[in-house]
Amino acid sequence: MKRNPFSKEYNSGRKDQFDVDYAIFKKCAEEAQTKEELVDMMEKKFNYVISRIADENAKELLEDMQLL
Prior knowledge:
- Helix 1 runs antiparallel to helix 2.
- By secondary structure, the chain is mainly alpha-helical.
- The chain contains two helices and no strands.
- The two termini are about 20 Å apart.
- The chain has helices at about 15-30, 35-65.
């Protein structure tokens, strides 16, 4: 299944993405001492996931345009 690189959805192609997201949240919630720390931890974790997906989308688009 080919992804649409122009889609603005947070989509990793996994049916169980909610379970993965919840597991990340639960682990961060257990480790965080304050709400601010929890928010910071969540931003770092999800920015990593989102940037990885963006990198994959960019690579796929460059391949489609025969630039890679």
